[in-house]
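Thread: Newbie trying to understand structure tokens

Hi all, I'm a second-year student working on a class project, and my supervisor (Dr. K.) asked me to get a predicted structure for one chain before our next meeting. I've only ever worked with sequences, so writing a 3D structure as a token string is new to me. If someone could post the tokens and maybe explain what I'm looking at, I'd be very grateful. Here's the chain:
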Amino acid sequence: MSELKNLFPENTPQGQKQAVNSNKQIITVTAGAGTGKTWVLSNRYARLLLSSNEVLPKDILTLTYTETAASEMKSRIEERVI
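---
Reply by user tm_fold:
Sure, no problem. This is what the structure looks like when written as tokens:
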């Protein structure tokens, strides 16, 4: 199983850390443009996959508003887990 490498860069806001590490089944990330929503969702997805052999991609739903953000999220997740 891959490791979560560099999960939290220096100066990561506490709220982003909490969202990534939350054990709640459902979280909502709301914020303005360029504030790190895609980063949070990508890292949460990777953490869920890499922290349990029982969690599969089919078990996780991550939504975003634009195709650009979805493409960026996919790339970031692939970088972490592949």
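A couple of things are worth pointing out once you decode it. The two ends are 10 Å apart (CA to CA). The longest helix spans residues 67-81. Feel free to ask follow-ups in this thread.
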